[in-house]
């Protein structure tokens, strides 16, 4: 067997398979086996709470109808928000799985190809040690961007409009519209819509580098206006420059 080329490749193949299994499955499992798995209730953090209460303010009627009204007493309201938030997180995760969002979106920033410049900090194993990552939502491919640092990057009403009809915000987007998360319009997310937005606003909310979209991203309209102003200034500059005149004369 060892005399033939294919025999050598066969043994090498077995060896590499065993090595990959050891380094990618057995070693990480042993490294993190002592970490307790976090429950959804433990995953509610101040950034996520901010977004969840923000949902209550942006969509007051829908929030009240599908999630409820917080108790008057402030301390009781605090517990109530935490509890509802955890409930919505779990439901949102189930919808993310059920709708197959993971066919097009990954949740894993790899330590290669400068991915951290595009998406944010590289993913760490312990980030996956929780109830919402059973099974892990690594995804299978990236038709759309990685979502593991999506929290805070966009406002919740941006997500509502985007889920209702992605092409309204992103020209030519291949992402399908999800009208069944709404009661007829983007201003009226139903229980599933609110849950999915909560889940999306959770992704990465545990990191120190949490971006509040207000400081982070210009609105698409502001971007278009800024680009148009720049183009107009450039056109004027060209018009006024002597080269432009010679160019016109030459015509
Ligand atoms: C057919 C592939 C596809 C599917 C299925 C899909 N998406 Fe997308 N998604 C995209 C693409 C492409 C983009 C980038 C263009 C855009 O913004 O629409 C995107 C963008 C996004 C963004 C905005 C990211 C950002 O900040 O720019 C979010 C959030 C998102 N998708 C969430 C979801 C969720 C949740 C689901 C499941 C309900 C889903 N997507 C299903 C392809 C997909």
Describe the structure.
The chain is an all-alpha fold and 251 residues long. It has two domains: 35-211, Cytochrome Bc1 Complex, Chain D, domain 2; 219-244. The chain is built from eleven helices and no strands. Helix 3 packs antiparallel against helix 8. The longest helix is centred in the first third of the chain and has 28 residues, at 5-32. The model has no long low-confidence stretch (mean pLDDT 89). The chain binds heme C. Heme C is lined by residues 96, 99-101, 103-105, 143-145, 147, 150, 153-154, 159, 166, 170, 173-176, 178, 196, 200. The site of heme C has 24 residues, from helix 8.
Name its key features:
single chain, 251 residues, mainly alpha, Cytochrome Bc1 Complex, Chain D, domain 2, 2 domains, binds heme C
In terms of topology, how is this protein built?
Elements: H1 5-32, H2 40-43, H3 46-58, H4 60-66, H5 74-98, H6 115-119, H7 156-164, H8 191-202, H9 213-216, H10 220-240, H11 242-250
Helix pairs in contact: 3-4, 3-8, 5-8, 7-8
The structure holds heme C.
Heme C binds next to helix 8.
Q: Write down the overall geometry.
A: globular
How many whole angstroms does the radius of gyration measure? 25 Å
Count the helices. How many?
11
Task: Tell me roughly what share of residues is in helical segments.
Answer: 40-55%
Arithmetic mean pLDDT: 89
Structural class: mainly alpha
Bound molecules: heme C
What is the element string, with H for helices and E for strands? Answer: HHHHHHHHHHH
Largest sheet: none
CATH superfamily of the largest domain: Cytochrome c-like domain
Q: What is the number of independent domains?
A: 2
Any idea of the CATH class of the largest domain?
Mainly Alpha
């Amino acid at each position: 067997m060892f005399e033939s080329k294919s025999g050598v490749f066969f043994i090498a193949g077995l060896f590499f398979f065993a090595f990959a299994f050891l380094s990618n499955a057995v070693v990480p499992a042993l490294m993190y086996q002592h970490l307790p798995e976090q429950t959804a209730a433990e995953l509610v953090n101040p950034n996520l709470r901010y977004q969840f209460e923000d949902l209550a303010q942006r969509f007051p009627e829908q929030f009240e109808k599908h999630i409820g009204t917080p108790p008057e007493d402030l301390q009781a309201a605090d517990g109530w928000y935490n509890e509802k938030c955890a409930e919505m997180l779990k439901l949102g995760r189930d919808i993310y799985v059920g709708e197959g969002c993971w066919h097009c979106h990954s949740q894993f920033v790899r330590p290669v190809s400068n991915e951290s410049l595009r998406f944010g900090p590289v993913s760490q194993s312990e980030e996956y040690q929780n109830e919402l990552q059973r099974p892990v939502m690594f995804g299978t491919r990236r038709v759309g961007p990685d979502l593991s640092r999506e929290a805070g990057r966009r406002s919740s009403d941006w997500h509502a409009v985007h889920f209702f009809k992605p092409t309204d915000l992103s020209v030519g987007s291949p992402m399908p519209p999800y009208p069944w998360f709404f009661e007829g319009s983007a201003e009226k997310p139903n229980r599933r819509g609110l849950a999915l937005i909560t889940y999306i606003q959770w992704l990465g909310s545990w990191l120190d580098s949490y971006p509040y979209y207000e400081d982070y991203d210009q609105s698409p309209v502001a971007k278009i206006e800024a680009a148009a102003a720049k183009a107009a200034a450039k056109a004027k500059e060209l018009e006024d420059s002597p080269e432009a005149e010679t160019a016109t004369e030459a015509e």
